[in-house]
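FAQ

Q: What does a record look like?
A: Structure on top, sequence underneath. For example:
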């Protein structure tokens, strides 16, 4: 992707100016950041990449809401369209020029927003699958702990997933 201009903004200002926001913060900051940007995201799309990792990162630990993405929807309200994606793709992979050999699970309740996020994911060179409503984001979030466990046990840098069908 060719970026001609990059500007930095304070969180609220950035949320106010965007059409679509991507939340990429540690789970410990998730709720705080959402409350800061809530008023500015009304009527917009939020792509939530958050995974609720705890101290023991190889053990699945989901929040009471069922997933971080559902938690985001509950905090932001119905006028923000939350789409969950990219939970299983490490930031070090996204910032690399190398091809990523994995696919992305995308969940949400708005078909147009799902399609838009799918296009953005494809621009990153990744395949993707719509995996149902936002509540299904719990599976992708939980899968991250499993992938981390695989990485640790088998001394891999970045395991990922691919969906196969016959």
């Amino acid at each position: 992707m060719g970026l001609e201009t990059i500007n930095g903004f304070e969180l609220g200002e950035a949320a106010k100016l965007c059409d679509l926001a991507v939340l990429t913060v540690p789970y410990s900051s998730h709720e705080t950041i959402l409350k800061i940007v809530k008023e500015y995201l009304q009527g917009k799309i939020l792509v939530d990449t958050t995974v609720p990792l705890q101290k023991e990162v190889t053990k699945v630990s989901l929040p009471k809401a069922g997933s971080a993405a559902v938690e985001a929807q509950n905090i932001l309200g119905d006028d923000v369209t939350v789409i969950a994606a990219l939970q299983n793709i490490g930031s070090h992979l996204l910032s690399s020029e190398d091809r990523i050999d994995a696919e992305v699970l995308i969940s949400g309740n708005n078909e147009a927003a799902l399609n838009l996020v799918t296009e953005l994911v494809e621009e990153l060179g990744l395949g993707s699958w719509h995996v149902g409503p936002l509540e299904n984001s719990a599976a992708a979030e939980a899968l991250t702990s499993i992938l981390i466990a695989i990485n640790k046990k088998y001394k891999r840098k970045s395991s990922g997933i691919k969906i196969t069908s016959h």
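Q: Is there anything notable about this one?
A: The helical segments are 11-17, 27-41, 68-76, 91-94, 111-123, 137-153.
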